[in-house]
Specification:
- This protein is globular.
- Helices cover 47% and strands 0% of the residues.
- The chain binds protoporphyrin IX containing FE.
Length: 151
């Protein structure tokens, strides 16, 4: 597997910032509408999270290093995330990239980057969650429709 940020095509050849913005918009529209994963985003401004994702991916794909937000592990330490919700997120991301018709190299590299965080973000139970600040509350939302495949 290639290291992050290295591939055949340059960041600009992959579509640069404009293609990342299109993917982020379509992806977060799906995330915010979804009855399960959408619950995690109730207090989060969609425009802010979209621009954070674009900045983060710009750096991870070898483009400008403009990201100033928290690193993924500290940003998610209060969220109880399991493999099922991680898979759901991945499926929404794939749908978004297919709708935007990104280049196959961008699709593969993006999925590899996100997948690299699975082990770091998925937790077994609430005891593995940590507050970001004293009055923080853990985010623990079970699948509201467990008989149905979430995606
Ligand atoms: C099921 C999986 C995931 C869920 C439910 C989720 C949810 C969220 C939510 C709700 C936020 C907003 C946090 C806040 O503003 O308080 C956030 C931020 C963020 N997420 Fe995720 N996320 C997931 C996976 C990932 C993955 C795989 C990555 C990395 C590739 C990632 C990268 C980020 C980044 C960079 C931020 C911005 C952090 C900040 O500036 O505070 N997330 N995520």
């Amino acid at each position: 597997m290639e290291p992050m940020g290295i591939g055949k095509l340059s960041f600009e050849e992959l579509g640069g910032r404009p293609v990342l913005e299109k993917v982020a918009k379509v992806f977060y529209d799906k995330v915010y509408e979804h009855p399960w994963i959408g619950q995690f985003f109730k207090e989060v401004d969609q425009e802010v999270i979209e621009s954070q994702q674009v900045d983060f991916m710009s750096a991870a794909l070898g483009g400008p290093r403009v990201y100033l937000g928290k690193l993924p592990v500290p940003a998610h330490k209060h969220m109880l995330l399991n493999d099922e919700i991680f898979d759901l997120r991945e499926s929404l991301l794939k749908q978004a990239m297919d709708e935007v018709s990104v280049l196959p190299e961008l699709r593969e590299r993006r999925l590899t980057i996100d997948e690299a965080f699975r082990k770091k973000l998925v937790k077994k139970d609430i005891s593995e969650c940590e507050k970001r600040y004293k009055t923080d509350e853990f985010m623990d939302f079970p699948n509201p429709n467990p008989t149905k495949k979430a995606a």
